[in-house]
């Protein structure tokens, strides 16, 4: 029975609370939240758990085996570091940290102490993502030439992260999980409508070694919610539409065969358009799988799939995208100033 | 009765043939096509029209009032120039020319000669585009903060243009038509899967003076066809899905109100989610309107909406996007080489 | 604080448990379930409620003000009668009883005792149903000429009711709620695939006084789930698709105007096809509203909308449909026998 | 080269005109239409065809090999009889005749004379219908337990037929084509909104020998067009949605296995929910196939699939449905009168 403390019972923390408390191999030993009214409610519903205002109480409690950190991103590093230093296994919500420097430090500590450091990339435990992975791994789709994601909706604006850090980790975790390589180059553009320095729309293009291009269209400003990933392969193509209740994943037996043409300068493609198949997608709730995987990783029964190194790679790519995005925003601002100056001078 | 010659009876030329021949104010006086079997068929179906192998016959024919040019892009300039020099009005398929230099020269000639020079941007005569324009012009949507277009399908690869020149003119014409300004800055990325030098996927970001950002996702490699434009306004938002037969245009009474917050560092948005309305979209075939507009422009009854200056602006923006795209492709190639060298050196 | 006992914690009972226990004006005083393991779980989660194996304990408990009956249909009558006789208010799951005779008896007792007798037709508290009612009541749709419902899915087969008694109450409650009249005539056909005597597909046609026809297509055998009601009005038409997450209710500004034609034998209709509007549908969970309405009805603060008379009318219509259905099944069986005899005789 | 005369150039006749004139083995020798302005236009476009006001001219013309009759239903019989008597092959639009008596007479004459008598049930040449047939014939779906069709839209009201005779032939032809048997029993209900005696909404239930039930929901009063057929099989189920451009046919690997249960009174079904496959549906225009099949049937190269016997069976089932529908309408009218009398008497 692993004794776990949950730090933070916000939007996602509530889900962790439910799932942690129903895993038979886990004892929810402590819950931390800064809000008094939340703590009072927790005390009623979870009489056997210690309820704390401050995570330091968890750090000091020698009974706690593991900490699950679901607080704002800015506090991830200090909490996780304190937990690891106190000999506790740690799971952190995604994104792992606000910088790769912090993430690297956590990875080093966990390795030095021989502790489990996991990042909760729940998406990878989603049955549709597992299906996409199997389709790629089995060669069913052939060589993957593009990954195209549209992840747009109205809100929720978050005060401590921009749209890139909020939405891109989903796609980047799938890309890393599947293609096991960091991008060779990262391009970005976007716009800040609500807050000057914080993009609420971002377009990211990632180029990979093996002739694959990935594009993410991320927005907090769209009236229609879309959660759609298209994977183009040389043999088949697949689309996952997370809002399609009945047929979330579709596999298109369509493709392009390229004929190199010695007589002419250009290659001409042949199109093949075939059947569409929608496999049955079902399975347990992804977060249930995450928590069970955490338990087994701590017990050494499974190799942690989304360990610190994994979380670090995602943060590193986010940093590269953020840097490209800032560069683009500055150039655009500069162009606008120049345009203004030209107009003013005329 | 205006006497018109049609040059080129390819994919789009066939539609022009049908529409030109059924406009009661137009006499289809001549048809040009390089293919013998096409000319034989035309001779049977259009006994009253002259059928030529070469456009020079049209240039020399003093009876022809106007030329409609539906040949490959590379021939647009020379044909149009010859037509204008011979005193004929000219309509050219989009994109107008392969370079802005050529387009500028045609504009200058048409102005000098007092002839009508029109570019066939059929899209602008589509009832859904007119609806979108009305929604923006009337202020119904409020200030437009973004334009997001997805224009993807499988093929048709075209030998003389890449995906940018093939698909972007649709969006650029709507943007110009509506927002009456060229972009302040143009960013692009993409990929060449089938032919080394010719992108078949392109992502374009355009920034406009008035805090608007436009993004185009263009692809010849998608198994699912999508033709979708989203317009985000401060009051309402609109989406045109050209493949939605029943409700192509939807207006979302949803939006974001931004509260500047003196006490805090960040602005917090308020979301409003309301009804969705799908206005009835109907009207004559857009190309019929194009041809009638050409006729009236020639007769001086209407001011040409898609004149040479219009077509030139589109070409100029295409050139800027092409230049940004090439720059991106080179940088990526360079990054890949470096990555390879690093690996090789290790 | 009204003291309520819940009898039966099956599929729907679980929802009632959650909602009853979170209504601040209700004290969940007792819970009844025949299964030991269920009772053990309930004892843990609801330490302040009495947990009984048998509803008779509730009947005998003078502290209980009201009983909520969520047991199989066959037990509704005897439980409700005992409850009323013991002076308790009663809410019964739909369908109210297995026969109108039973339902009439309950209505008479509740009236005699001055107790609240309510039937849980949750559907009527659904915000989409309320929207439809408002559209009809306000005259927006004009005179309603038809009601067309498709309510099909794969299972769940229920041992104690057939597809008619399982699915039709939803539609019948909306029809009664809205049109406040019992049908003049009821026709039915159907089929028994799985069990000889128990239809799993049923087609019901109901004719109403005011030139309205209603048709229900009910099935437990469809691979695709559909929950769709269309309402045809003389001015506008409305469709509620319960599975359309984004736009569940659509109002079509389309209609038919009938021109009586003295010169000709037939009337010719004029079609009008206009915009489609999808109003925002939102509101509290319907069952929460049901339970609050029960509480207020018991306290005399509201007139019970789905009282015993209401439930009785639904049962009466179900009986008429059942009778028509049995008649149709017998005639078909007879036709088949005759066909067989003819073939055998030949 | 078969010399064909087309009688009637209305809505469907225009399509026949286009297809007949482009079949290389057919010479469109004559065209008949009662309207002067139509004949004038035809004379221009089809200079090599004789243009007649009256079909009697065709009957008298010994050069004509075959007549294609696309006139109103009421004239089908007399025209076809005259054609057959004059030794001409005949193809009639569906429904074949207004009564089975007429249809039987035509069948007898065609057999006596050894002439081809074909009914244009174009639907059966639709690639989606052929796919459904193959799925049934190959046993892929298993035993078919139900056929459920929804064929609703707004108009077109037709003066000489009601909604049953207009829309049901599509479904009945598929049912006959596929299941090769007439129904054992036919039930019907409906409503007459626009014209007293002519139903514009009809619900038809057909029972077949082999435990299959078919249901048709036919309407001219629906704001939303639907063209959807569901086929339930013991192994798999299939749905054809004619308005789904991308995936018209879907095959659901879902089903119900019935376990007979000796210990209990009822059978319990097991549900299986699997993948969905949408085969590629493509092929030539169905009407092109119809015309070519007519030509080959006349030449004796193919056995006519939709011959007079086929058309007769469809008419016979329409008559049975019409009779059931009239019976239902009378009973409802009677119930309403009685209700009125009861109310009046009170």
Automatic annotation (TrEMBL), chains A, B, C, D:
Ranges of residues in domain GFO/IDH/MocA-like oxidoreductase: 129-237
Highest taxon of the lineage: Bacteria
InterPro entries, per the entry: Gfo/Idh/MocA-like_OxRdtase_N (IPR000683), Gfo/Idh/MocA_Oxidoreductases (IPR051450), GFO_IDH_MocA-like_dom (IPR055170), NAD(P)-bd_dom_sf (IPR036291)
GO molecular function: nucleotide binding
Domain Gfo/Idh/MocA-like oxidoreductase N-terminal: from-to ranges: 2-121
Classification via PANTHER family: BILIVERDIN REDUCTASE A, GFO_IDH_MOCA-LIKE OXIDOREDUCTASE N-TERMINAL DOMAIN-CONTAINING PROTEIN
Protein's name according to its UniProt entry: NAD(P)-dependent oxidoreductase
UniProt source species: Rhizobium altiplani
